[in-house]
Amino acid sequence: MIIVLVILALTAGLLVSRGPLHSQRLDLDASARSVAASLRLARSRAIAQGHPVTWFVGARGFSLDGAAPQALPRDVTSLAAGTIGFAPDGSSSGGHVILQGGSRRVSILVDWLTGRVQLAETH
Fold it and tell me: Which one of 58, 80, 81, 123 is least enclosed by Cβ atoms within 10 Å?
């Protein structure tokens, strides 16, 4: 009985010392969905409020219209910094955001004519 308790204690100690379990793939996918949602919100806000809205991405996070930046998980980075503007008619300056997590990359594409936001995995 004591041996079983010692084995359980060692196993629990290993799990606790390892920290929370997470997947780099899941972090990248969640970040890409969050960035895409923020871009869609920027477009919707420009249309609803009738004035241009600016969206910015940096290496470690992104922000909408000068608001406090939202940080990306530590194992996800944006490969380029830049700004995408949305006009009141729904169009945009166009562009793309590439997020990288490990060896995987995800592109978020913004169509300049329609402002449509799409996710695409790149290799």
Answer: 123
The yes or no reply on domain 23-122 and CATH 3.55.40.10 is yes
Tokens of 34: 């969050």
pLDDT tens, position by position, 100-113: 998 999 999 999 99
Beta strands in the chain (DSSP E): 53-57, 61-64, 70-71, 77-78, 82-86, 95-101, 104-110, 117-122
| Phi, psi angle pair for 36, to nearest 5° | -60, -40
Partners of 78 in the β-ladder = 99
Whole-model pTM?
0.81
